[in-house]
Write a structure and sequence with these properties.
Belongs to the class-III pyridoxal-phosphate-dependent aminotransferase family. The chain has 439 residues and is α/β, with parallel strands linked by helices. Helices cover 38% and strands 17% of the residues. It has helices at 17-30, 75-87, 98-107, 123-138, 155-158, 182-185, 190-207, 235-243, 296-305, 316-331, 334-355, 384-397, 421-437, and strands at residues 44-48, 51-54, 59-62, 116-120, 142-146, 174-177, 212-218, 247-251, 276-279, 290-294, 359-365, 368-376, 381-382, 399-400, 402-404, 410-413. A seven-stranded mixed beta sheet has the order 4-10-9-8-7-5-6, sandwiched between helices. The structure holds 4'-deoxy-4'-aminopyridoxal-5'-phosphate.
């Protein structure tokens, strides 16, 4: 079987006949670009709360998916979408109240300077639009990103996503900086290194006659290896870029919507003031809704000379889903819960490091955690094979996580915000058991 999944080639000898049939059909119909997770890919048929169910009815604790962040098939979202789709679903070229009510509430979660919102259908589109705005406002083309960033799939944004692999050659207008890797660079060094890298990137762009337009950063540096970094560590580098006229685009597709704990938005931890913020994934709990929030000065400069229409972006059903997500975050106190359960998880995983030599570092912000596996704590050599073993062993135990980073040796743990302490305990125990078998 030629299929390569997220971690390794599917182990054909361990697949059931029905799994093999589905994989072959998928390859035939969708082609090789689509990758599956796990040596024994999971056939999901139903989701409810923190659980996914396979075709046998077995349940899996979901500590990976941040789209259905408030819980799979959350009844409030399902009901809101159902209600709205019975009444009206069109586009944004008619007067409608729902989009405005939602826009007001969404903007209410930001500081007053971020006072405009525009809607898209995906995080990629949001980043693409933010990049267009930045280029329009600055007259530049150059972009600064981190070394193993991922920002999406459009032609312009894939070029800003080196984590897509070596086939993605960085174009001349892109410069990379090191992500704030406190484990490998030292906690006290990351802020000055980040600022120095940004300085060097701007200088180098200019030296090549390229005017910089934007610095685009995922606030939790997920694909770089889940690197929250010390709070505030990117502030100096970002301020320096803004002083040079670049727009700072905070990509909140991963850390947004309460994921990082008490803060609704991940960038808040870093004490920075974005010009544009891009949103996606958990925004509609599964309904495709995404967008940008920005300073009116910037957004209006673009909008005055450029018409914007996105057929599905901001449609009434998507806005109803987005509104329900905001309501649930508020009413179920998910910011506080993400902080509380996230701290509990961080403690539990940190305690595991006392027993498992392979755990080099445990880090996180709220409900986004990384456990970096190394074969040797002194050299910090990445334990990629072992990370793969742990991810696959946990899947067999019924707990879903993934791996991230340039070496894929960082356990990427991103539980649904609906987790309780009991779920967190199950997760820690599953990591413990899986680590015992990794070698
Ligand atoms: N930015 C980041 C940081 C992401 O992780 C992703 C998706 N993984 C995107 C943007 C793109 O979002 P989408 O897949 O909705 O286009």
């Amino acid at each position: 079987m030629s299929m390569i999944n997220g971690f390794t080639s599917a182990d054909a000898t361990r697949l059931s006949a029905s799994q093999r049939r589905l994989i072959e059909r998928r390859e035939r119909l969708l082609g090789p670009a689509y990758r599956l997770f796990y040596e024994r890919p999971l056939h999901t048929v139903r989701g409810e709360g923190v659980w996914l169910f396979d075709e046998q009815g077995r349940r899996y604790l979901d500590a990976y998916n941040n789209v259905a962040s408030i819980g799979h098939c959350h009844p409030r979202v399902v009901e809101a979408m159902h209600r709205q789709s019975q009444v009206l679903n069109t586009h944004t070229r008619y007067l409608q109240e729902g989009i405005l009510d939602y826009a007001e509430q969404l903007l209410g979660t930001f500081t007053d300077d971020l006072d405009r919102v525009m809607f898209t259908c995906s995080g990629s589109e949001a980043n693409d639009l933010a990049l267009r705005i930045a280029r329009h406002c600055t007259g530049g083309t150059g972009v600064i990103i981190t070394r193993f960033a991922y920002h999406g799939v459009t032609a312009d944004i894939a070029e800003l996503s080196p984590s897509l692999g070596s086939a993605m050659v960085l174009p001349a207008h892109v410069r990379t900086v090191r992500a704030p890797d406190a484990y490998r660079l030292g906690a006290e060094n990351v802020a000055p290194m980040f600022a120095a890298d940004v300085r060097a990137a701007i200088d180098d762009l200019k030296a090549h006659g390229i005017r910089p337009a934007a610095i685009l950063l995922d606030g939790i540096f997920s694909s770089d290896g889940v690197l929250p970094g010390p709070a505030g560590c990117i502030a100096e580098g970002v301020a320096l870029a803004q002083a040079e006229g670049l727009l700072y685009i905070a990509d909140e597709v991963q850390p947004g919507f309460a994921r990082t704990g008490l803060n609704m938005w991940g960038f808040t931890r870093h004490n920075v003031r974005p010009d544009l913020v891009t949103l996606g994934k958990p925004m509609g709990n599964g309904q495709p809704i995404a967008g940008i929030v920005g300073r009116s000065q910037v957004v209006d400069h673009f909008g005055r000379s450029m018409r914007y229409f996105n057929t599905f972006g901001g449609n009434p059903v998507s806005c109803a889903a987005g509104q329900a997500v905001l309501d649930v975050i508020r009413e179920e106190h998910l910011q506080q819960r993400a902080h509380h359960i996230g701290s509990y998880l961080l403690d539990g995983l940190t305690r595991l490091a006392q027993r498992h030599q392979m755990i080099g570092d445990v880090r996180g912000a709220g409900m986004f955690l990384g456990v970096e596996l190394v074969t040797d704590r002194a050299t910090r050599a990445p334990a990629a094979r072992q990370a793969r073993q742990v991810v696959n062993a946990m899947r067999e135990q019924g707990v879903l996580i993934s791996a991230a980073g340039p070496h894929q040796n960082v356990l990427k743990i991103r539980p649904l915000l609906a987790f309780t302490q009991a779920h967190a305990q199950m997760l820690v125990e599953a990591v413990d058991t899986a680590m015992q078998g990794a070698c």
